Amino acid sequence: MKKLLATLSLAACAAFTASAATVNLANVTADTTLNNGDVAYGTLSRSVKISIATGATVTISNATINIGGDSTTKWAGLTCNGYATIILEGNNTVYGPYQYPAIYVSPGARLTIKGGGSLEATGGDQAAGIGGGNFNARLNTTSILSDGNCGHIFIEGGDITAFGGAHAAGIGSGQSYSCGNIVISGGTVKATAGSSAAGIGASSAGSCGSITITGGNVTATGVDYGPGIGAYDSFRCGIVYIGEGIKMVRAVRNIKCSPRLLLGENLIQNDSTKNGVSVSTITSRVVNLADITANTVIEDDRIITGTLGGNYKISIADGATVTLRDATINGVNSESCKWAGITCIGNATIILEGGNTVTGFHEDYPGIYVPVGKTLTIKGDGSLNASGSLSNSGYRWAPGIGGGCYIDCGNIRIEGGTIKAAGGFNAANIGGGSGANCGDITITKGVTGMVLIQPTNGYRTIGGGYGGTVGTVTVGGVVGEISQNPYVYAPNRVNLASKTSDYTAADGDVMYGETTHTVTVPAGANVMINGIEVMGEHDVVIDLGDVNADTTIADGTVVTGTLSANVKVSIADGATVTLRDATINGVNDQSYEWAGITCEGDATIKLEGSNTVKGFHENYPGIYVPANKTLTINGSGVLNASSNGYAPGIGGAYYLSCGNIRIEGGKINAKGGRFSAGIGGGAYGDCGDITITEGATSVTAEKGAAGDFSIGRGNDDRSCGTVTIGGVVGEISQSPYTYYGILPAPAFAADGKAATTEFVKGANGTWTLTTFAEMSNDALGSGVADGQIKVYAAPTVEGLNNASPMTSGVTVKGKKSAVMTTIEVTPPGNPPTQFFKVKFGE
To answer: What is the C-alpha to C-alpha distance for residues 701 and 721, in angstroms, rounded to an integer?
Structure first.
């Protein structure tokens, strides 16, 4: 064991003394090792062994390696005994003999393939194209460098085609043996199993580590129940991670892995069957309009986002369902652009998320065009503002949604969202254009928001255009065209302006307009108020832009908008209020002696969106908590709180003590003024208990000049209750200071076989790695020096490839064996890094 460790250590640190050479493989007559910088070319057809020295980077350029051989040949076409890099130039071909791969990566080693050339690697019977083989039994040895297991494979570039032999993976393990991790970050990769194995991953009865694909164009084909990516038996494969931004991953016979498949947020997996074989194709769903430089047809299940920067025609494929997510298409009226903002080629479904705007490009075309005999369905919870393009004279001639000027349209069905539609002269707002016919128009009671028709000079609000016909118009179950302009439709719609007294809403109400009366939403009800969803016992949403006098916010109120008046905003005793994209930027003035928000007693603030609160007078905080009372902050939004002089962001005031502060959620940024804490006591003020739980996303506090604590008491030896942050007791003097609440456990990967890891978070923010399992060499452990256990950290999985070992924050707690090595790691960074790998024996 100790001898092996010494060998590994020497290999990792060895210096190359041989000068680089150009090797013509046709002239090689004996076993040869390629050293760092060597270039190999030509054709090798003799049964000799070609190896790559440990740590070497070599280039193969228009090379062919076909050593032939029979059951007595005991090596691969190309052997990597340690860490090695192959750079591809030109066209290259490598074959493996019986039970040996074309390119063999020994256990614990790592092969990186990159460059602009191509490589075709074909494994022998029971061996992978790139990876491991099945030769241990034939050699009758258990030497770590002489069995069928293989190390790690990294592909960063090149055009690579890999074929496995019978019962072996294209890239991965040979029959009944294992391989390490496989990482593909670039290039074009096509991997096909021989039989009963994965294209990329594990062989028949074999296993593999994690498989990570973060770039390139990947096609993997499994054979005889073997998956395209993963393992014949899913529990013999580590995590398969497919990151964002890849071109395509196509897995014939799908993906099979354990414990899970991780897809980037913006990816989709489509399962289909072709010639009786199931296929998983994973491609990017997101289409950013800002990246479009030509007329584009959007395919099924895509997400359209961003702002279109040019005059391009955007179409939706026939039968496609697409999502509009904060998308903007502002067509500019031009005779060169005779098309709608969005053109449906056939039947289409649009799902609305966020706020979307679509305007036609020519005055004769609508915002969204629906072809004759086809149906457009609109659903979702977002909004859509659709209109035809204005002509040079200021007129539109087409609807917001439907047909065009003398251009007939199909059927329109609206099942969800908030729709605003502006039509043109002699045209409907939704439906037919001037002189054109239209199919059926249906707006269901399931609309989640409202259908609002803005005042226009259109012929109909919802229906046919002038001189045209329309099918059946059904709005909320009522048949008939709509001519009222402006017009608002919503299930259970309520015009608040018509209310002469207080109103109690019913579940499903969609309210619009303004009222000076109180609107009560009963518990359990779900309603919309001017496009904003309100649940529970909420009063009317208060827009701070409409507040012009001192105001006390009642329980259940949603506060939004920007306060423009210099007035005092308070929260009633015992009330729970929601801050939703609210801004109170207090102006320091002796006439305004109050905080940005004043709690009159116990209060709870729920955060949604991004909120900013600054005190008005220099002696008052952003949010004031009175003595012996408690403010609780939760939710998922952001709060930026600060004072204008001598008070905290959240807490007390100048010479004025504060109560208790409890932060259970959200992202908090609190900045104190002179002599004050960021959260807690003000200048010369005491403070109650301060508790920050792990439910908070993050809490950042900065003390003011001459302040003593960022979280805790004010200055001048004032007192403070108990400060508890993530279960740890004690005031915080560090400034600025950031606490991160619940974070996902770090993603660790062992640089050996699949690592099974278990983590425990310590009170001091460290993560303790308590177990390893299935390391490539179970003997590693007690004989490994601490310095030979390296931990690498990066903010992304891809970054681990170029990361340097951590020089601090790593403590080896015990080394009984490879499966009982304990490592304590303090994640670096702000926020803490979440991706790690561990290497033994370096």
So the answer is: 18
Q: From CA 751, how far away is CA 837, in angstroms rounded? A: 7
CA atoms within 13 A on the CB side of 104: 34
Give the Cα separation of 203 and 608 in Å (integer).
Answer: 50
Place of tokens 């030769």: 135
What is the Cα–Cα distance from 133 to 110, expressed in whole angstroms? 16
CA dihedral 132, 135, 137, 142 (to 10 degrees): -60
Beta-strand pair 314-316/342-344 = parallel
For 737-747, how does the pLDDT look when each residue is reduced to its tens digit (9 = 90+)?
A: 988 776 554 55
Task: Please report, for residues 86, 180, 625, the alpha-carbon distance to residue 111 in angstroms, rounded to integers and kept in the order given.
Answer: 8, 11, 61
CA distances from 539 to 504, 516, 527 (A): 10, 12, 11
pLDDT range class, residue 422, cuts 50, 70, 90: confident
Q: Which of 111-120, 387-396, 449-458 has the lowest mean pLDDT?
A: 449-458
- 3-class secondary structure for 3-61? HHHHHHHHHHHCCCCCCCCEEEHHHCCCCEEECCCCEEEEEECCCCCEEECCCEEEEEE
State the Cα–Cα distance between residues 748 and 566, nearest whole angstrom: 53
Give residue-wise pLDDT tens across range 684-729. 888 999 999 988 888 999 999 888 899 999 886 788 999 999 888 9
Q: Give the H or E element holding residue 138.
A: helix 136-139
Q: Pick the closest to residue 59 from 34, 28, 33 (CA basis).
A: 34
The amino acid occupying position 166 is A
pTM, to two decimals: 0.43
Burial class (CB in 10 A: 0-12, 13-18, 19+), 288: middle
